């Protein structure tokens, strides 16, 4: 599938891997694709920045949301993440729950990211009938990411004052230009 990716889309995938590594994630999650796209100079990044979802804003929203852990979901089942962290640090020392080191080498794609990349291809194949799109650019990667409807990505976009429908509209406008 990657042979259909433009250079910019390939850079997005590499940047997503670097984001995952920087966050000490064991897999490349959809949020890492969002972070990479927010820095992309191509169509996907341009659309994100046009609605205020630049890299710094996405990172800030991610920090406010608790990152990869969904504290609200844990609270719904009676788990207070702050109390768990405090108890672990009291017993084992500061940073006891933090992952040590950063993954080396290849980081695999999480299922949601795999689906996003597959949806990128589907997006290009569907749009091919309307225009002569043959390659997957960063706009198609963004469309694929939006199609997956990842809860963390959805929450971050909402915090930034946008949503998938608005971004899809912006992508359509960017394609027409």
UniProtKB/TrEMBL annotation:
PROSITE patterns: CLP_R (PS51903)
InterPro entries to which the protein is assigned, alphabetical: Clp_N_dom_sf, Clp_R_N
Keyword Hydrolase carried by entry: yes
Ranges of residues in domain Clp R: 2-177
Gene Ontology terms for molecular function: ATP binding; peptidase activity
Pfam families: Clp_N (PF02861)
Recorded superkingdom: Bacteria
GO BP terms, alphabetized: proteolysis
SUPFAM superfamilies reported for this sequence: Double Clp-N motif
Keyword Ribonucleoprotein: no
Annotated keywords: ATP-binding, Hydrolase, Nucleotide-binding, Protease, Repeat
The protein, known as: Clp protease
Organism of origin: Modestobacter marinus
């Amino acid at each position: 599938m990657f042979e259909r990716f433009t250079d910019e889309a390939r850079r997005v995938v590499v940047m997503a891997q670097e984001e995952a590594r920087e966050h000490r994630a064991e897999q490349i999650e959809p949020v890492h694709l969002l972070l990479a796209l927010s820095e992309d100079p191509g169509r996907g990044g341009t659309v994100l920045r046009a609605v205020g979802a630049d890299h710094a804003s996405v990172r800030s929203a991610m920090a406010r949301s608790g990152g990869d852990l969904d504290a609200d979901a844990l609270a719904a089942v009676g788990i207070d993440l702050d109390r768990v962290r405090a108890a672990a640090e009291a017993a084992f020392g500061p940073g006891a729950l933090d992952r040590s080191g950063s993954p080396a080498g290849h980081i695999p794609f999480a299922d949601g990211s795999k689906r996003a990349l597959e949806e990128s291809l589907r997006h290009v194949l569907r749009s091919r009938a309307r225009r002569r799109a043959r390659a997957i650019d960063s706009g198609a990667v963004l469309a694929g990411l939006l199609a997956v409807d990842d809860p963390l990505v959805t929450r971050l976009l909402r915090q930034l004052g946008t949503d998938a429908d608005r971004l899809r509209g912006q992508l359509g406008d960017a394609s027409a230009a």
